[in-house]
Here is the input.
Amino acid sequence: MAYEIIGSRMLGPYVGTSISVWTSIIGIILLSLSIGYYTGGKLADKHPNHRYLVIIIFASAIFIFVSALIRKPLINWILSHIPNLEAASLLSSVALFSLPAVLLGMVSPYAVKLKLKDIKTSGATAGYLYAISTTGSILGTFLAGFVLIPAFRISTNLYLFTFVLVLCSGGLYFVYKNNKTNISIQEV
Here is the structure.
């Protein structure tokens, strides 16, 4: 959610903050998350180990970092080739937000698979992890909207998101590396 809110600030100076811009951002992020949920679930069934989850989280950090670096020239290039602001905002949203959102969407089903110990408690396990995820989204929304965006530049916020994701992937990696048993995501 925080990345979505920052997304409006990324596109705003170039294509505005109209309803069509918000529609592009929200629609592309939701579509990308859906693809990530599906893909993450399939991958988790084939390769249920923490290394893949570490790679997914780290890759999302890389793509958010790249979006910080390329956003200005990319949006300017899109606008120079597509004068329609609605189409430009849609294409900019695809280019900047789809890959990080797909990867972030993969995290939840992967975490459910790794945390799942017993089919009898699968609903509770999934509910617990999704509650944690939603709580994080709520906190991220308020933190981004009330603290981070007013206090820092867009690129600084993106670098901060990158740093947090790198820390998460690094923490998961070291917990897994130091404990070869089947650790749960809750322990991280």
Observations:
- The radius of gyration is 17 Å.
- The longest helix spans residues 50-81.
- Residues 183-188 have pLDDT under 50 and may be disordered.
- DSSP finds six helices and no strands in the chain.
